[in-house]
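In response to reviewer comment 3 from the previous cycle, which asked for concrete evidence that the modeling workflow produces usable outputs, we include below a single protein chain processed end to end. The sequence was submitted unchanged, and the resulting structure tokens are shown without manual editing.
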Amino acid sequence: MPENKNARGKFIVFEGTDGCGKTTQTELLRRRIAEYTGSPCLIEREPDSRNIVGAVIRSALYGGVRISPDSMAYLHVADRLEHIDFVLPLLEGGSHVVCDRYYLSNMAYNSGDTLSVADIYELNRPCAERLAPDAVVYLDVPPEVTRARRAADRASEEIYDADEKQRKVRERFESALAHVAKMEGEEKIIRINAARPLDEVADEIWARVKALLFE
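The workflow returned the following structure tokens.
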């Protein structure tokens, strides 16, 4: 269904633990949105290594530099503010953007002993005020499934790849989703059982995103 070319594009965020299938599903959704709307649809990722903050974070994720957990929480916010400056003109120009991770990942991965999920949401409030997602697609996959996927896809591990860390991250995603639903409305959150066959998952994502944003 063709859209008004002057309309602002939609900003759709994918979230989930490592190995949940975001890389594959973001591309499949991007293609469907572009085909259905006739407007450009682009993929973005966080951290954004095109800026220096994002590059430092990516180095830290693979152990290249050591950064304290609290500092990582703040660095992700700084990276996101830089990224928003890049993404907003794309949306204002009518392009849709599908983003692999946003501030829910920040809340799930960087909360812990000193910063709560709610604390990190407050750190991200300037990001939410400038660019809140139109939809959040959360791919829920059990840890034993994501472990096998990570082992098959990665040549090296990230600092969060240990099974116990991934279980904690999954628990914190539940808290992050509940908090964002409370602060921004639960209608934008699309929970998907992503342990199923790829095409089945992709079809459900598209059906629910289409119903929410494009009908």
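The chain has a mean pLDDT of 90. We consider this sufficient to address the reviewer's concern, and the full set will be provided in the supplementary archive.
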